[in-house]
Prior knowledge:
Helices cover 9% and strands 36% of the residues of chain A. Chain A is mostly beta strands.
Amino acid sequence: xxxxxxxxxxxxxxxxxxxxxxxxxxxxxxxxxxxxxxxxxxxxxxxxxxxxxxxxxxxxxxxxxxxxxxxxxxxxxxxxxxxxxxxxxxxxxxxxxxxxxxxxxxxxxxxxxxxxxxxxxxxxxxxxxxxxxxxxxx
Amino acid sequence: xxxxxxxxxxxxxxxxxxxxxxxxxxxxxxxxxxxxxxxxxxxxxxxxxxxxxxxxxxxxxxxxxxxxxxxxxxxxxxxxxxxxxxxxxxxxxxxxxxxxxxxxxxxxxxxxxxxxxxxxxxxxxxxxxxxxxxxxxxxxxxxxxxxxxxxxxxxxxxxxxxxxxxxxxxxxxxxxxxxxxxxxxxxxxxxxxxxxxxxxxxxxxxxxxxxxxxxxxxxxxxxxxxxxxxxxxxxxxxxxxxxxxxxxxxxxxxxxxxxxxxxxxxxxxxxxxxxxxxxxxxxxxxxxxxxxxxxxxxxxxxxxxxxxxxxxxxxxxxxxxxxxxxxxxxxxxxxxxxxxxxxxxxxxxxxxxxxxxxxxxxxxxxxxxxxxxxxxxxxx
Lengths: 138, 380
Ligand SMILES: [Zn+2]
């Protein structure tokens, strides 16, 4: 894992919990107790109604594929050697949309369909960082 | 709100001395050459400038290099749309009496910079996007295009993207300053290599070195200058997200707000527009934007664009400079849309000149379909 060359997240105080839970193979979201909105990415104040009364909830990890790209040319040098990979946006069952990689699937239009059911999987890329990714639902 | 339509005019536009691949210049030299050239075009001098507008770099870094000491400064920085929005802000500032001669400059070495440009790693993109290779415009815009294809049909979307790439190249062939002037066939488009599916190479803009500048002043002062004023008849701005996963609808850009608002301010409709200049970072940017602007309804863009309507000789001229796709695109291209619109309205574009255009709609887009500025320009 020491030779992992791709960018790692610079965690922020409002997202430390998100990344801690990812290391435990759990996907957690912020949810507002005032307006009821679950949102991605984490912020300590609800971006919809500005309430401070926000909780963490564990997401089901289930969702659908909203949009994707099979990337054939890496946008920066470390990704040049990582192609092809699938950049994807997932609509989580709890409501929010999040960016990720689609994995565990053949990279072609026959196997990747917008609207397909997907579920979270966890990629332990370093000792400190685990990235939530998504695969076709079992 | 006061209607500022036709209270100010663009009186000077220019590129830097050279654009394209220019390793012998820095970005700030691009700003400086363009500033000097645009002021000369306006028949004004550096010392006439009291309002200064730029994006990308901090205003005082650029202004110092240019030897300009403004009493009004605006650093609105929302990607490639910034410079179009600067025009909107300039007309407000001029009307408020904060400045009389506004200079807007841009310069970027997208191709040949000696050090990379970067984003702050403390921003959310560094946590949620970069680790997944969701970095830079092609990957992000490609995902948006995939959604459009899903909603409105892959084949007709693909044809629309091809129409845009091919027609834009035809215009570029008539622009001596354009970087890509070789003919492009539909087959060339379809056979170009993949970058980020569904984008082929020829869906993507160029990466160049270039600068440009625009001078805006009051309508009154504009009438004292030698060239015909190009009046700012309408202007509007909007941004509704930064990161692509926060975009409310991947097929609708902020132009859905700024297009109708700018047209209403100008008191004109889509049918009145003689020249449409739409930021073409990608073919898809044009497709989504023309629908959002209201030239046609959602999903109707492929029919609207069919049969090379946007090419030379067509009835909906688009991006007559050759656009970001074939003319130049240093990174934040929006200012070049204004340069071409002004030249067309003045009748200065030679072989590609439209017949007596009176009205142009200019729409800049910034970030990841994040921000737009729309202005309506017109001549008497
Ligand atoms: Zn709330």
